[in-house]
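Researcher: Good morning. I'm working through a list of sequences from a screen, and I'd like to move beyond sequence-only analysis. For each chain I'm collecting a predicted structure so we can compare shapes side by side. This is the next one on the list. No need for commentary yet; just the structure.
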Amino acid sequence: MSLDADLQKVREAGYKITNARRAVLSVLHESGSHLTSADVLAQVEARDPAVGRASVFRTLEMLTGLGIIRPTYLEARSPAYVLMSEDGHHSHIVCTRCYNVIEVDDCFVESLSEELEARYNFRLSGHLLEFYGTCADCLD
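Model: Good morning. Structure tokens for this chain:
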């Protein structure tokens, strides 16, 4: 999704667009990668020193609750945050040796999502899917 679309989603959920919320979303959109909360905090502070640490963490929590971002644990114990696609998914293939991450743009679990919704009487809004293995470089 675009920055403007994500800001609109925040508005539609009843939240105001504060400097902190705009800065956090801008950092996530401009990064093009997975950022830890420390990464987001550092980049927001460089952009707008008036934005406090607590505001950044509250914004990450709010964006997670709205399904705009999801935490993922690729390399460390602290999560990295990823932007969800417009249709609510984000997928990776992760090498467990070198931690190379391949972004998977296609969604292959549409039928599984439908089955889970029917079986558990649940309305799914998105998913984060990670496959783990060993990349070709590490197999050598």
